Amino acid sequence: MARYANAWSDKWLFKLNASKCKTVFYGRNIDHGYKYSLHSAELENTPTIKDLSVIFDPELSFSQHCKEKIKAYAMLGIIKRNFIYLSEEAFVSLYKT
User: Cα separation of 51 and 14, whole Å?
Assistant: First the structure.
């Protein structure tokens, strides 16, 4: 499998950074001990992964994702209530911080 992925990425000039790649398993009766590698670098196995700002967990329940979004909206509410006279630029800077 790894040989195929390496050949495919080389053929299409699709450079992958192995240090940023991870593996995640979904489904029943999965062999979690299987190790994937990319260009001789073993990929880390993780139970949850974030893709396009969505957190995926092994059960695909999205509960962790929802908790994170609730925290973000709560922080947004605190900023809005306590800093009502901020410029838009200062508000965005404060929110990102």
Answer: 19
